[in-house]
């Protein structure tokens, strides 16, 4: 292994030469090269059809400049950080690189090996971007928020490049069913998507639904019938609402997954089956394991890879694109149905307990009332929908909280500071502590939010908190 303690810039020519052999075009990312202890190159696979790029940052150190370089590049590119320091970076520094926006991190292992590793990653990212831009993904899954795009990217990667079972959790109406269909489309399996809604499995019929039965196996079994395990062979078995599966069936399902074979009800013959398992639930299965309602061994089988489509309230940026998508569905000839500002505001502030399904239903109800040319107006909102009208802000609870602070003798500066700190804390919680996304949502620069957080930490430390 070659260590480059003097700074990553020295590795650029070597890596560029080696990457050239791997069919990857490499350009200097001019501005970023001025960073003192790092060098960055932007690279694109020669087979790439996508416009967004890849960045490779060679880190000869990990200081604020390097982190800023990564943050800047990550705004428009997938970034691979390469640790070129003489001693491997400590793990908390590696996490800091990932937190700054690096998609992946490699130790420097000599130009040749490093180039192979970089080329493999760029090829994967390139294929991923092509899939993300494809009609298979864009045609049915609408959303442009960072949270939604990150979710879909994870799903696309696991669906297209692995055969891993997938567990989709999340609130009702968040798109779990659509995600299962996407996994099937991208899986490349020759077989069908076999859907079984576990809430419909009555104890009497469950065996037959899952295993199938022989003719005469029980009263009413007039003909032999295939069950879900046979139908899913070579394809995908989608168990919707898997959290509702009774314990006895959980044990049977586990056995079939482990052994890859089953017997029809009334038969002594083993029948092989191979399927990819995709499960969905809006239950908290880990809590169900704690209460004994769900088997831990089955959970770890079905949850090899987990994803959670976020509720709509966590991705406001998706509301209007979804509204446009639904309006196009309702009006395929596209007669140009614009929303006026008041309707847009109403749709953006309404509460959607049923998530995207609720939004679709709301748009449909408004659309049914609309007639004639011109934009959809607030008058098209059905009367019972008006109850959802968001009260003006600042609202009564906000005024109560401020009154409370004033009555306690808080100064204006302290109240303003507390309101801002609370907003920052809430958004950081929602954005998994990602500074960049939180800053974007709060309408401040990344740097301004960092400074504010640093100051808050110093105040906390000073007050012994
Ligand atoms: N990202 C999306 N883009 C377009 N349509 C969406 C999206 N997410 C959800 N929908 C639409 O919202 C509705 C509900 O979606 P879906 O059935 O996939 O949700 P779910 O999470 O499986 O719900 P449940 O838990 O109640 O079964 C469907 O009409 C679906 O087409």
TrEMBL record:
Keywords: ATP-binding, Nucleotide-binding
Pfam family, one: Sigma54_activat
Domain Sigma-54 factor interaction: 141-368
PROSITE patterns, alphabetized: SIGMA54_INTERACT_1 (PS00675), SIGMA54_INTERACT_2 (PS00676), SIGMA54_INTERACT_4 (PS50045)
InterPro entries linked: AAA+_ATPase, AAA_lid_NorR, P-loop_NTPase, Sigma_54_int, Sigma_54_int_dom_ATP-bd_1, Sigma_54_int_dom_ATP-bd_2
Keyword Glycosyltransferase in record: no
Lineage of producing organism: Bacteria, Pseudomonadati, Pseudomonadota, Betaproteobacteria, Burkholderiales
Name of the protein in its database record: AAA family ATPase
């Amino acid at each position: 292994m070659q260590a480059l303690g003097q700074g990553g810039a020295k590795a650029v020519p070597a890596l560029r030469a080696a990457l050239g052999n791997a069919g990857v075009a490499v350009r200097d990312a001019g501005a970023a090269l001025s960073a003192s202890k790092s060098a960055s190159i932007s690279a694109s696979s020669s087979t790439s059809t996508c416009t967004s790029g890849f960045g490779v940052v060679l880190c000869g150190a990990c200081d604020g400049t390097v982190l800023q370089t990564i943050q800047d590049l990550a705004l428009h590119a997938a970034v691979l950080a390469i640790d070129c320091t003489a001693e491997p970076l400590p793990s908390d520094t590696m996490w800091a690189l990932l937190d700054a926006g690096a998609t992946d991190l490699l130790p420097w292992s000599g130009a040749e090996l490093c180039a192979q590793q970089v080329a493999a990653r760029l090829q994967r990212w390139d294929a991923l971007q092509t899939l993300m831009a494809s009609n298979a993904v864009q045609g049915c899954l609408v959303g442009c928020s960072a949270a939604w795009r990150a979710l879909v990217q994870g799903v696309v990667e696991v669906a297209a490049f692995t055969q891993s079972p997938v567990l989709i959790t999340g609130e009702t109406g968040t798109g779990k069913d659509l995600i299962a269909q996407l996994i099937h489309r991208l899986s490349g399996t020759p077989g069908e998507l076999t859907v079984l809604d576990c809430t419909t499995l009555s104890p009497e019929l469950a065996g037959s639904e899952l295993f199938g039965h022989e003719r005469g196996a029980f009263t009413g079994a007039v003909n032999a019938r295939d069950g879900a395990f046979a139908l899913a062979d070579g394809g995908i078995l989608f168990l919707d609402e898997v959290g509702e599966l009774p314990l006895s069936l959980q044990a049977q399902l586990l056995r079939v997954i482990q052994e890859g074979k089953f017997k029809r009800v009334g038969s002594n013959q083993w029948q092989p089956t191979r399927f990819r398992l995709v499960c969905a639930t809006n239950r908290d299965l880990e809590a169900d394991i704690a209460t004994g309602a769900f088997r831990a061994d089955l959970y770890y089988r079905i949850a090899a890879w987990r994803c959670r489509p976020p509720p709509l309230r966590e991705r406001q940026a998706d509301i209007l694109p979804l509204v446009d998508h639904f309006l196009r569905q309702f009006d395929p000839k596209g007669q140009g149905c614009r929303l006026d500002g008041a309707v847009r505001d109403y749709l953006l502030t309404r509460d959607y307990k049923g998530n995207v399904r609720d939004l679709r239903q709301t748009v449909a109800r408004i659309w049914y009332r609309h007639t004639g040319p011109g934009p959809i107006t607030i008058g098209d909102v059905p009367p019972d929908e008006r109850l959802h009208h968001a009260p003006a802000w600042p609202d009564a609870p906000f005024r109560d909280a401020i009154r409370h602070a004033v009555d306690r003798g808080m100064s204006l500066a302290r109240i303003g500071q507390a309101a801002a700190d609370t907003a920052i804390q809430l958004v950081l919680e929602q954005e998994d502590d990602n500074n960049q996304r939180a800053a974007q949502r709060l309408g401040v620069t990344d740097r301004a939010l960092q400074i504010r957080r640093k100051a808050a930490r110093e105040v906390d430390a000073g007050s012994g908190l």
